[in-house]
Amino acid sequence: MTPARLRRAFGTFPSGVVAVAASVDGQLTGLAASSFTSVSLDPPLVSFSVANTSRTWPVLRRAGHLGITVLADHHDAVCRQLAGPAEHRFDGVRASVTPAGAVTLDDGLARFDCSIEREVEAGDHTIVLLRLHAVADADGPSPLVFHRSGFGRLLTP
């Protein structure tokens, strides 16, 4: 069982994609994650996983609050941008910053204001458990879907 084979097998499971972002020391910073999931309604909790090799997570985790944006099907370029050079991740992206520092994309399908509840080391990733403080959602396009290492969209009848 090699990492490449596991990646291919894991890639058969389609998932949504979120932006995780905050203002840290006056700079917008963020990353994209396809491992986002709801955890609990009471208390309201969500989670995502981040690679232990991430250079962005050590900066983001210093933020008081994190913004989570569920990306829409037109966000594929934004998602790639969030994986690019840190200094250009938010170029041309319409985003809002809460007083607590959470950053969300203005045209996301859902936006969450969160704080870190707990981090759990899990192999080569860390599972980040987040407590929700606020939520907003919008009727809009379909979500961005990550499948077999590429982006797609849901087909609706």
TrEMBL record:
Domain of life assignment: Bacteria
The keyword Protein biosynthesis appears for this protein: no
Molecular function as annotated in GO: FMN binding; riboflavin reductase (NADPH) activity
One Pfam match: Flavin_Reduct
Record bears the keyword Oxidoreductase: yes
Assigned keywords, A-Z: Oxidoreductase
SMART domains linked to this entry: Flavin_Reduct (SM00903)
SUPFAM superfamilies per the UniProt record, alphabetical: FMN-binding split barrel
Gene3D superfamilies, per the entry: Electron Transport, Fmn-binding Protein, Chain A
Protein name in UniProt: Oxidoreductase
Species per Swiss-Prot/TrEMBL record: Actinoplanes cyaneus
